[in-house]
Amino acid sequence: MTLQGIKRKITYVATYEAIAFLFGTLGFFSFSDSSLERAGALAVFASLFAISWNFAYNAMFERWEAKSLTRGRNLSRRVLHAVGFEIGFLVVLLPVAAWWLDISYLRSFIVNLGLNIFFFVYTFTFTWAFDRVFGLPTSAATPVSS
């Protein structure tokens, strides 16, 4: 089954974020002195931001990918995709988490770094599995010769 366009993006983001919300809440709660409610509220913010960032980042990545001479998604391209996403996410979430959880920027960096390492592996694995189930997007598919 090949899923393309907006249906692919919505399915990807909804599935990814449902799982990410659970792990985000547990991560913020476990590695801060915050209540579960505050950790959950931060996870909601992180999830909403991630949804927006996911759509924007994947659109930019797929635009770049479509112009690339190399087609497909090899290991290095998957790593590049995951690293780029997580760096952009960290830039926004680090100060927000420090403020919301009332922790230092250093503590926020450590908490976010731990979550980023987890989410780096999660993003890589989830995207690989998603592509296996739903096929590659048009931007990464090898063109069919006529």
Brief overview:
This protein is mostly helical and 146 residues long. Helix content is 78%, strand content 0%. Helix 2 (36-67) runs antiparallel to helix 3 (75-100) and helix 3 packs antiparallel against helix 4 (105-134).
Quickly count the helices. 4
What do the pLDDT scores average to? 84
Total beta-strand segments: 0
In angstroms, what is the radius of gyration?
Answer: 17 Å
Task: Calculate the terminal CA-CA distance, rounded to whole Å.
Answer: 22 Å
User: How many domains is the backbone divided into?
Assistant: 1
Beta-sheet strand percentage? under 5%
- Low-pLDDT ranges: none
* Biggest sheet details: none
Dominant shape: elongated
Percent of residues in helical segments? over 70%
Topology order in helix (H) and strand (E) letters: HHHH
Task: Based on the model shown, name its key terms.
4 helices, 146 residues, mainly alpha, elongated
Plain-language structure description:
The protein is mainly alpha-helical and 146 residues long. The protein has one domain (5-131). The protein has four helices and no strands. The chain has helices at 5-30, 36-67, 75-100, 105-134. Helix 1 (5-30) runs antiparallel to helix 4, helix 2 packs antiparallel against helix 3 (75-100) and helix 3 (75-100) runs antiparallel to helix 4 (105-134). The longest helix is centred in the middle third of the chain and has 32 residues, at 36-67. The protein is elongated, with a radius of gyration of 17 Å. The mean pLDDT is 84.
